[in-house]
Write a structure and sequence with these properties.
Layout (H helix, E strand, L loop, with lengths): L7 H6 L7 H16 L3 H8 L3 E10 L5 E12 L5 E8 L4 H18 L4 E8 L7 H14 L9 E5 L5 H15 L20 H19 L8 E5 L3 H12 L3 E7 L2 E4 L6 H10 L11 E3 L1 H5 L5 E4 L19 E3 L8 H9 L3 E3 L1 H4 L2 H15 L5 H26 L3 H20 L3
Parallel strand pairs: 3-4, 3-5, 6-7, 6-10, 10-11, 11-12
Antiparallel strand pairs: 1-2, 2-4, 7-8, 8-9
This protein binds nicotinamide-adenine-dinucleotide (NAD).
């Protein structure tokens, strides 16, 4: 067996502050591969996505003009099972981002113990400036273009940033029409009445808090005496904040792309959710806290910080050395650069990495897919209990791996995933 050899230059110059998510993923992959002396062949397979599809989607806009959007689906690995991963709508969507997100899905599913590989999709668009009809046409065109890529046993999409149950319903409908048979298992995160699972909407944020509480127990932090700050107030951020509150933490800061709010007495989260739901999904104009900057929010004096918005929020160049939290729990994918990780570790800050912390969503997506295939639907308490147990097991596994190899939780999480995927790649063989 030849062992992976990462170039000396990479090995000695230390982690970079690169905001290219794929480079950030590769840096962590390299480090984990070095620690476990990963087989060079497996390393090469894991470094390269197995399939990359780019499509042009001409869409008729409401004013009659045609606009051409770019859509992606990148399948990183199918070693452990059909590929799984969300679809993101954002102007920032680009191949490097989708490639990284797809690889993180491979790691995430392996860490959670789910029999899936990893994929991700996205369309470069500004959904906030589009009408519902335009979004529907775009989603249907994307589904049609990907209809031979998607498949219940091949590749199963789900929601991500700026997509939710409505987009999933359009995908089910379009795919079912093209294939000629109702196929709810083609996506997860569907509305309940179309075969969605109870607990799916809350699953990611709920899992973020389960993993945070596991970490707090290890760090001997009493949730009832702790404060928390949450960046992002969409699906993941708002549910994370609400579950922190339920667990006894005082949430003193929240934010979205329109503003950040601080209240030392604790934010009234029910009011914040009501405000967001009444004001086109944004916190702008919220009166329950002092308006602060995003920079101030991330560096507030709080015990727990949960970045739940987007990539590259904690960087060496900007704020890593100013972070005051004792624990960071990554609800978002890729919020911390590799160099920032190093700074946080030196400061003694524990980071529960994205590939572990936000795995609750894909775990319940897996339960949804199982329910669609068997036709038997679980109660919400059954789903939540199972998902919480899976998250706890995944956390303990990563924690023990970190102790064993004396590495951060992030590198430990990559190691857990690599060891599982390596076995599958070797057992399945190649040409
Ligand atoms: P969402 O679209 O529901 O919400 C995103 C939130 O982030 C919004 O409140 C938005 O205003 C805010 N935001 C965007 N840019 C920001 C900025 N610069 N500063 C502060 N806030 C900003 O998306 P989501 O589903 O909650 O996803 C958030 C993150 O969690 C993404 O990284 C996504 O990949 C990850 N994630 C989501 C799921 C899921 O089940 N939805 C699962 C795993 C990981």
């Amino acid at each position: 067996m030849s062992v992976v050899k990462i170039s000396k230059k990479t090995a000695t110059s230390g982690p970079t502050d690169s905001t290219n998510p794929f480079e950030a993923m590769i840096e962590r992959l390299n480090e984990a591969a070095r620690v476990i002396k990963l087989d060079e062949n497996v390393y090469q397979v894991m470094k390269n996505p197995s399939r990359q599809i780019v499509v042009s989607l001409p869409i008729q806009m409401d004013d009659g003009s045609i606009r051409v959007f770019e859509g992606y689906r990148i399948i990183h690995s199918t070693a452990l099972g059909p590929s799984k991963g969300g679809i993101r709508y954002s102007m920032d969507v680009n191949p490097e981002e989708v490639k990284a997100l797809a690889a993180w899905m491979t790691f995430k599913c392996a860490i959670a113990g789910i029999p899936y590989g990893g994929a991700k999709g996205g369309i470069t668009c500004d959904p906030r400036s589009m009408s519902k009809g335009e979004l529907e046409r775009l989603t249907r065109a994307y589904t049609a273009a990907m209809s031979d890529i998607f498949g219940v046993d091949k590749d199963i999409p789900a929601p991500d940033m700026n997509t939710g149950p409505q987009e999933m319903a359009w995908i089910v409908d379009e795919y079912s029409k093209i294939k000629g048979g109702f196929t709810p298992g083609i996506v997860t995160g569907k509305p309940l009445f179309l075969g969605g699972s109870l607990g799916r909407v809350e699953a990611t944020g709920r899992g973020v808090v389960v993993s945070a509480l596991q970490a707090m127990e290890k760090l001997k932090l009493d949730p009832k005496k702790c404060t928390a700050v949450v960046q992002g107030f969409g699906n993941v951020g708002s549910i994370t904040a609400l579950h922190f509150q339920q667990a006894g933490l005082k949430v003193i800061g929240i934010s979205d792309h329109t503003g950040a709010f601080y209240n030392e007495k604790g934010i009234d989260l029910q009011k914040a959710v009501a405000h967001r739901d009444k004001h086109k999904g944004v916190l702008k104009g919220f009166k329950g806290g002092k308006l602060i900057t995003n920079e101030q929010l991330l560096t507030l004096k709080a015990d727990v910080l949960a970045p739940c918005a987007m990539e590259n929020q904690i960087r060496a160049a900007t704020n890593a050395d100013k972070i005051k939290a004792k624990l960071i729990v990554e609800g978002a994918n890729g919020p911390t650069t590799a160099r920032a990780d190093e700074i946080l570790t030196k400061k003694g800050i524990t980071v529960v990495p994205d590939v572990l912390a936000n795995g609750g969503g894909v775990t319940v997506s897996y339960f949804e897919w199982v329910q669609n295939r068997t036709g038997y639907y679980y109660r919400e308490d059954e789903i939540n209990k199972r998902a919480d147990n899976w998250m706890k097991k995944a956390f303990d596994n990563v924690w023990e791996t970190a102790q064993k190899h004396k590495v951060s939780l992030r590198i430990a999480a990559y190691i857990v995933a690599l060891e599982k995927v390596e076995k599958a790649i070797k057992a399945r063989g190649s040409y």
